Amino acid sequence: MIIVTGAAGFIGSGLISRLNQDGFKSIIAVDDFSKIEKTENLEGKIIQEKVERDELFPWLDKNQRDVEFIFHIGARTDTTEFDKEIFDKLNVNYSKDIWLKCVAYQIPLVYASSAATYGLGEHGYDDDETTLSQLKPLNPYGDSKNEFDIWALQQEKKPFFWAGLKFFNVYGPNEYHKARMASVIMHAFNQIKATGKMKLFRSHNPDFQDGEQMRDFIYVKDLIDVCIFLMHHRKNSGIYNLGSGEARTFKDLVTNTFLAMAKTPDISYIDTPVDIRDKYQYFTEANMNKLRSIGYDKPFHTLEEGVADYVKNYLASGSYL
């Protein structure tokens, strides 16, 4: 059996789809299934059992002998949430409990960290484990992810294989439920479809022109490929960046969305909301050398390829991965 937490979410549901395609049918889907807006993500997928998030640990105590791997993808990911207690409960303490079970039962683990740990990038975007304590995330979400990464490295007892993946800006199918936190591509698709235009955040940093803010955008299919690689690899434990390795502008992103919709780009700019303006990353770019060094050699989708696939094969038809 393979456990996937956050199973009904964006990345978790896509991962289950890929596991099914690869012949894995004994999937234990863990989530807060009271959130019905996410249930469509699991339609058509082969799942052995659904386990409520709060029931995972007693379930694991009973069934640990049959568990082959855990993908801990579930987390509170809202970067506009500032209640630290929520992140302590769902991102830090819950993750610690999963780690300790993996140690006790010798279950390999891949868990989701985040590029939000890098803050403004004062120390660059290298997945150097010796610099984690120097990082300055911009919000409680980033703090929670960095806190767990640091805790994991400090543990004397570790799963025989584990990997923390610092997800950069992920986009792709199955994010329909994410509302404000969905990718800019999805927001662009909806705005363009409704109005023929797209509004992007204006730059409030003199070093960047409007629309020239840059992020490392990674297509969810590439992220899932890495997860599958690590499940089979099971060595070289540690924390790894997971981005495309190439920063691109939001203007590039939206222009490609227009082109995938066969429409002429029409972009204007609005002020960045005040509640996130001073916590806004203007540049991120993953150094991917560490992952490449352990043997992962599959190329990532270019921005043009990923946006075209997402828009034409999923957003335009409302299809799920």
Computed structural class: alpha/beta
CATH architecture annotation name of the domain at 2-171 and 217-245 and 285-301: 3-Layer(aba) Sandwich
Largest sheet, spatial ordering of strands: 3-2-1-4-5-6-10
Order of SSEs, N→C?
EHEEHEHEHEEHEEHEEHEHHH
Q: What's the CATH class of the domain at 2-171 and 217-245 and 285-301, please? A: Alpha Beta
Residue stretches low in confidence (pLDDT < 50, at least 5 long) are: none
Q: Overall mean pLDDT score?
A: 95
The portion of residues assigned to helices is 25-40%
Structural shape: globular
Number of strands: 12
Helix run count? 10
Q: What is the CATH third-level topology name of the domain at 2-171 and 217-245 and 285-301?
A: Rossmann fold
- What gyration radius follows from the Cα positions, in whole Å? 19 Å
Compute the separation of the termini in Å: 21 Å
> Superfamily at the CATH H level of the domain at 2-171 and 217-245 and 285-301?
NAD(P)-binding Rossmann-like Domain
Report the major sheet. 7 strands, parallel
Strand content: 15-25%
Based on the model shown, name its key terms.
7-stranded parallel β-sheet; 10 helices; 321 residues; globular; Rossmann fold; alpha/beta; ADP-L-glycero-D-manno-heptose-6-epimerase; 3-stranded mixed β-sheet
Helix-strand blueprint:
Layout: E1 2-5, H1 10-21, E2 27-31, E3 49-52, H2 56-63, E4 69-72, H3 84-105, E5 109-114, H4 140-154, E6 162-167, E7 169-171, H5 184-195, E8 198-201, E9 214-219, H6 220-233, E10 238-242, E11 247-249, H7 250-260, E12 267-270, H8 274-277, H9 289-293, H10 303-315
